[in-house]
Structure formats: C-alpha cells, structure tokens
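User: Hi! I have a protein structure encoded as tokens and I'd like to know what sequence might fold into it. I'm fairly new to this, so please keep things simple.
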C-alpha cells in the first residue's frame, strides 16, 4: 500500500498534490481500515441525490437524523465537484452510517454573514426557507471564516454501533478527503450544544467553538448550537496527531 492509492476504496491517487497524498493518504487508509475492523465498509459517493434518496427510503434514518438542507439536492446545487457523501454498510448490507461534506466559495463573504442570511442552508433562502426558520447569533464571530470553506457534517451512526470510536474517526475521514479535494482555508460544522458540552468537541477534533447560536430548523425544532471550526493547517496537524495515536481509537472490548 502506498500513500497515493488507498486499499479501502478511496481513490487517493486521483486528488490533491503528491505532497498532500503522502501526508493524508496513510491516515485515511488507517481510519477507513479501522472502520472496517468495526464491521463497517465505507463507500464514497459523488451523487448527492443518493443521500437524499437514502433518507426518503429509510424512515428510521429520517426520524433519527433528518437530512440537513445544506446537504439536500432539493435545496442546494451540489454537483460532484462541490460535494460528496460517505455511506457505511454493515456485513449484511444494512446502512450503518452516513457522513458528507460540501464546499463553499466565500471570497467576498464569510460564515457569519452567510449564516445570518440562511445561505448556508439554502441556495435561495427567499424561495426555499420556511416561515419562522432562522439562525441568530448572540455575538459576532471572533475570526472571519472566509475564502474556500468546507462544511463537513451530516454524521449519523446507527444506534447499535455508537460507542465504538466511529464518532472520532469519521470526522477525520471527511475532513481529510475534503482537504485533498478542495484544499479549504477553513473547515466547519454546526453541532448542538448538548453534545459539545458532553465532550464531543474533543471527540470530533475541532479546536475552536463559537457558542450562542439559536437555530430553528425546517422540521420545527429549536436548538442551541455552536459552530466548530479549524483552519486547513490545524486540520493537517490534527490528522498527523490522529495517525500517530491511532491505537487509542481501537474498538472497546
């Protein structure tokens, strides 16, 4: 196995620079292999309609993890060049997890402005946004998250597979693949505060958190959420550390 080609189905040799493939390829291989040790095979998809169709076909998934509008092709233009999703299947072919990412190009704007305007969630919020749906911030962002930015989220793990380290591994896989493809200056996600307060920020690996967001979504729920983010250089450093200490993410006995 070389850093330029994955033994687990991620076409590492087709994306990024040689330097990045050498740096991130071993971590992706190790992470995807560790997921396989847990009985889950990962499949990479470029057609985001497949993620939407998965949610429509699986009532349990739709109820447990409603599809975020920013990852839904019914609300956003998500061609393969700007988005991907990862499907995890168990040994019987049953859906085990989903994860996804998309790229934003914010040369003349930033995360705070796009969030307030709901353009994070919809390409055309004036048409597709629902009455009462909004995002409010208690305080301004401390940094300007702008330029090439990757949203990495939509993580869902089937309930019987939780507690096995997948929540620590999958965000690294999603961020590394995003960086190989798009080389973003920042990567971010939004997470409900109750998970972050319970320690999931460390699990997910994001060094920065901006709390004080109130989100009312298209499904009628109201949540206290935070943005978590990192720079591209911080993502690379986290990937290096994760590979170096990978044994800590092995399955529990």
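Assistant: Happy to help. Inverse folding works backwards from shape to sequence: for each of the 253 positions I chose a residue that suits the local structure. Here it is:
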């Amino acid at each position: 196995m070389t850093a330029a080609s994955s033994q687990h189905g991620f076409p590492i040799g087709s994306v990024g620079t040689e330097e990045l493939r050498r740096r991130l390829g071993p971590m992706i291989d190790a992470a995807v292999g560790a997921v396989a040790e847990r009985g889950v095979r990962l499949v990479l998809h470029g057609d985001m309609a497949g993620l939407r169709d998965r949610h429509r076909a699986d009532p349990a998934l739709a109820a447990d993890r409603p599809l975020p509008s920013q990852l839904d092709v019914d609300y956003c233009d998500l061609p393969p060049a700007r988005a991907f999703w990862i499907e995890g299947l168990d040994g019987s072919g049953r859906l085990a997890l989903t994860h996804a990412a998309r790229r934003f190009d914010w040369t003349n704007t930033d995360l705070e402005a796009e969030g307030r305007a709901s353009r994070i969630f919809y390409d055309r919020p004036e048409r597709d946004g629902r009455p009462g749906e909004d995002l409010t911030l208690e305080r301004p962002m401390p940094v300007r998250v702008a330029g090439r930015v990757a949203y990495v989220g939509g993580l869902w793990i089937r309930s019987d597979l939780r507690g096995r380290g997948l929540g620590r591994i999958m965000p690294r896989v999603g961020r590394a693949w995003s960086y190989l493809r798009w080389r973003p200056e920042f990567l971010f996600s939004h997470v409900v505060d109750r998970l972050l307060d319970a320690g999931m920020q460390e699990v997910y690996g994001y060094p920065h958190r901006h709390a004080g967001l109130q989100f009312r979504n298209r499904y009628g729920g109201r949540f206290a959420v935070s943005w978590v983010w990192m720079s591209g250089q911080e993502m690379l450093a986290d990937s290096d550390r994760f590979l170096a200490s990978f044994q800590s993410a092995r399955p529990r006995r």
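A useful reference point when you look it over: The chain has eight helices and eight strands. Feel free to ask if any position seems puzzling.
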